[in-house]
Design brief:
- By secondary structure, this protein is of the alpha/beta class.
- It has a single domain (about 5-260), classed as 3-Layer(aba) Sandwich (Rossmann fold).
- It is about 40% helix and about 25% strand.
- It is built from 11 helices and 11 strands.
- It has helices spanning about 15-20, 30-35, 55-60, 85-100, 105-115, 140, 205-215, 215-220, 230-245, 245-250, 250-260; strands spanning about 5-10, 45-50, 70, 100-105, 120-130, 130-135, 150-155, 160-165, 170-175, 185-190, 190-195.
- The strands form 2 sheets. A 9-stranded mixed β-sheet has the order 2-1-3-4-11-10-9-6-7, with helices on both faces.
- A hairpin with a 2-residue loop joins β10 (about 185-190) and β11 (about 190-195).
- α4 crosses α5 (about 105-115) and α7 (about 205-215) packs antiparallel against α9.
- It is globular and about 50 Å long.
- The chain starts with a strand and ends with a helix.
- The model has no long low-confidence stretch (mean pLDDT about 95).
Length: about 260
Amino acid sequence: MSNLEILIVEGNLKEENQSFLKAGIQTHTESLRDSLNHFNYGFNFDVVNPSSDTNLDTVKEKLSKYDGLIWGGSSLNIYNNTPEIKRQIDFMRECQKKVKCMLAICWGMQVAVTAAGGEVKKATNSHIGIANEIVISSAGLKNPIYKNKNNKFNSPAFNFDEVVKLPRDSVCLSSNKINKIQSLYFNVGSTKIWGLQYHPEITYEKMISLIEFRKEKLIQNRKVFKDENQINEHISFIKDEISVTNKAQRMIELKNWLDNINKQ
C-alpha cells in the first residue's frame, strides 16, 4: 500500500483552529495526518475546509481521484444550520456521490448522516474526553472496520450531539449507554461510508488539553461540570485510562479503513 490519495476534510471554522494553535493544541486535521502517518503506508494528502475555502468547485471536480476521504471533528452543532454548516452538508453530498471510501468521525459522521437523510439532535448526555464501554453490535462484529477490535472498549470522544435517525439502509455497528449510535455503516450508490462518533485518531492527552481549553464553557455554558474540582477529577479519570490503553487497539479502525481502501 503506497501513494494513496487521501482527502482530509476539516470540520472546524478557521477561528476555532486559530484558537487551538494559540493554545498549543493540534488542529483536528493535524491529528488526522499524524495518526494516518503512524501506519507508514505512504500518502498524498490534500486538505479542504468547506466552510471557508473558496476553491470548492475545483475540489469537487477532482473528488473521484481520491482513494479515500476522512472527515474529522468540529465544535459546531449541525442543527444550528448556519451558512458555514450548510456549505459542509452540500460538500458532503458531493463527496458521497464521487469518493469511493469515506471515514466520517464525530462531526463528520453527523454531517454524513444529515446529508444522507438521517437526523442529529442534541444529546441528553455527553462524552467529555472519553467514551466508556462501547459495545460492538452483531452487525459490527462482521464489519471489516472492527477486525481484531475488542468487543467492548473505551475511546477518546467529545460530543454533545447524537444521531437519532439513521440514513436509509444503514446499520448500527456499536453503541454505549450515552449514545445508541456510536458507529454505523451505509452506502450511497457505490460509495462506502463508515461513521464513528468517537475519536480513534485523537490521543487522550489531546482530549485533556481540550477539556482545559474549554474549561469555562464546560462549566458556565454547557453546565456538564459544577466547578474546576469536578473537571480535575474527570481529568484524573482519563489519565488512569491513559495508563492502561493500547495505542494499536485505540487506532485499529483507522488501519482497518486503510486496509479496506487497499482492497478496492
